[in-house]
Specification:
alpha/beta; four-stranded parallel β-sheet
Length: about 140
């Protein structure tokens, strides 16, 4: 692992439980990857299904170590919320990036790659590559 701080990962789902479970799975499959800051931002602030710009911003701030933040989303309106936060500027840390990747497989690839000390470009590439994973 690199001596530098790792890239942060934010997992945005319409469900708090789904986001937290995918974060747990990704960290577990990365050998626990305790050095990789991973945060989930699921559901609304009131605990319902949906997305919350405030939860996403807080999660990104919590995992930002100065090397960028990869944000992965589950469904369309989560994507739109992250895009709006990026467009507004100042809502997400400098170097935050929306990553186009499958949610579960991309999260695992992102966390595993970040655990190696890779930079944000490499973390994004690994997560995107998950689109090509075949199951049969």
């Amino acid at each position: 692992m690199s001596d530098e701080e790792p890239v942060g990962i934010v997992l945005v789902s319409h469900s708090a439980e789904v986001a937290a479970s995918v974060a747990e799975l990704a960290k577990g499959l990365a050998g626990g990857a305790p050095a990789v800051p991973v945060a989930s931002a699921g559901g609304t602030g009131a605990g319902g299904l949906g997305t919350s710009a405030e939860l996403i911003s807080a999660a990104a701030a919590a995992v930002d170590r100065g090397r960028g933040v990869a944000v992965l989303t589950d469904l369309g309106s989560a994507v739109l919320t992250v895009k709006a936060l990026l467009a507004e500027g100042g809502e997400l840390p400098d170097g935050a990036r929306l990553v186009d990747a499958p949610f579960v497989e991309g999260a695992v690839a992102a966390v595993v790659t970040a655990a190696t000390g890779a930079d944000l470009d490499a973390v994004e590439a690994a997560a995107r590559e998950a689109y090509s994973y075949r199951k049969v």
